[in-house]
Write a structure and sequence with these properties.
Layout (H helix, E strand, L loop, with lengths): L1 H11 L16 E5 L4 H12 L4 E5 L5 H10 L6 E4 L4 E4 L1 H12 L3
Parallel strand pairs: 1-2
Antiparallel strand pairs: 1-3, 3-4
Helix pairs in contact: 2-4
Protein name: GST N-terminal domain-containing protein
InterPro entries: Glutathione_S-Trfase_N, Thioredoxin-like_sf
Organism: Ostreococcus mediterraneus
């Protein structure tokens, strides 16, 4: 529910602190997401925490953006990250967060 998502976000506010990324990408990362996806929220929080420029592409049901993602990768799943700086393309919030931390994370 919305309340549960809100409560979880509030509980993480103390942990969410801006920290400087060791490297900034030249081009913004692109994150495909579905607004209520808790997995996408984790990725957005890491991108925001590191102040990494990114574009969020919301893919609600019935949206042509969802169809576009499906056409690109052959199925629909969020979060999906594209990094044109390195050529990385990936699903799975755990893998995406690990990639962001390894590639751009703070020292």
């Amino acid at each position: 529910t919305n309340f549960t998502a809100y409560a979880a976000a509030v509980s993480r506010l103390k942990a969410l602190r801006a920290r400087k990324a060791k490297t900034m990408p030249e081009k913004p990362l692109v994150l495909y997401t579905y607004e209520i996806s808790p997995f996408s929220k984790l990725v957005r929080e890491v991108l925001t925490e590191l102040c990494i420029p990114h574009i969020v592409r919301y893919t609600p049901r019935g949206s042509s953006k969802r169809d576009s993602l499906y056409a690109r990768v052959g199925h629909f799943q969020v979060p999906y990250l594209e990094d044109d700086n390195t050529g990385a393309r990936m699903f799975e919030s755990k893998d995406i967060v690990a990639y962001i931390e390894k590639t751009y994370g703070s020292d």
